[in-house]
Structures are given as structure tokens and as C-alpha cells.
Amino acid sequence: MQREVPTGDLAKLTQLVAERLKGGLDANRLSFVISQAQVARNCQPTDTKRFTLSTPLLKGGARGVTFGNGTVTVTGEGQSAHNPQGNAESWFDPGQPVTIRITGMGGKGTTVSGVLPLHQSLVVDNAEYRFTIAASQRSFVEVTADRCAYP
């Protein structure tokens, strides 16, 4: 029996498939998605944009960027940096954790937190967006997005 029980990656996938089927996902749809997964990806050239993160001292104005002709919006916030006298500055401290929100049209989204650089993906319609968020010039983060066909 131990030979027939999946282990490792296969066990994780088996559990995930069982959860999706139990949650009501159609078996034909799940089979299609799995069959379409492949190593080669159909992606557009990367797109890189930058914006200023909101901080406790810098909250006003539009703080974010969009990708895919406005399909996905990336925003975020961080902790204020401090000057040598210990006073808070308006720009964020890249050595402290930040919170990045990635939101697709219709409100579907994800949030990732931690010290930069951060990586996160979001599937919107028939596209997978893979993001890398890194510190840039003072007060800015740089967001690089890959947009690939999904599945």
C-alpha cells in the first residue's frame, strides 16, 4: 500500500486536486488546465514601471501603477525612513517590510508583504501576471511585470 500512496510533489498535487474537486470545480475544467500547463510560456515582453509608496507621512495623491491597459493595478505602503536625528521622513525605508497590493479588474487581487524584493503572481482572465517589486531611487519602488497566456 505504501508504494501506491503518493509522496512529495505528487502528494501535494493530489491533495490540491481533491480540494478543488470537493469545492465544486468541474473535473473537465481541471483536466484541461493541467493538460495545458507546459514549460514553454507564451509571454509578452516585460514591462517596468515605478511609483512612490505611501508612508505614514505621505498618503495623498495617486500611488500606484497599472499594467495590461489598466487590467491590473499595483499599489503599496511602507514605513517612513528616519534621518540621522531620528525624525521620520516622507519616503519609505527600503530596509523595512512593505505591503504591496495587486488588484485585477473586478476586484480580484492579492497582497504580499515583506522586505524588498518581493515576487507575486495574479491570474486575470486568460493572462498570468508575474511581478517583481524592488527598491528603486529614494521613495520609489520599481515593478517589473511579465504577462503570459494562461493556462
Q: Tell me the major beta sheet.
A: 4 strands, antiparallel
Rg calculated over all Cα atoms: 20 Å
Number of helices: 2
Query: What is the SS-derived class?
Result: alpha+beta
Beta content comes to 35-45%
> Residue ranges: pLDDT <50 for 5 or more in a row?
none
Mean pLDDT: 89
> So what's the overall shape?
elongated
Spatial ordering of strands, largest sheet:
1-10-9-8
Give the CA-CA distance, first to last residue. 34 Å
Total number of beta strands: 10
Number of domains: 2
Binned, the helix content reads 10-25%
Could you characterize what this model shows?
With 151 residues, the chain is an alpha+beta fold. It has two domains: 1-37, no CATH class; 47-149. It contains two helices and ten strands. The protein has helices at residues 8-22, 27-36; strands at 47-52, 65-67, 72-77, 80-82, 88-92, 98-104, 109-114, 118-124, 127-135, 140-149. The strands form three sheets. Strands 1-10-9-8 form a four-stranded antiparallel sheet, with no helix packed on it. It has a four-stranded antiparallel sheet with strand order 2-3-6-7, with no helix packed on it. The protein has a two-stranded antiparallel sheet with strand order 4-5. A hairpin with a 5-residue loop joins strand 4 (80-82) and strand 5. The longest helix has 15 residues, at 8-22. It is elongated. The two termini are 34 Å apart.
Key features of this structure:
four-stranded antiparallel sheet; 10 strands; alpha+beta; 2 domains; 41% strand; 151 residues; 2 helices
Summarize the structure.
This protein is an alpha+beta fold and 151 residues long. It has two helices and ten strands. It is elongated and about 65 Å long.
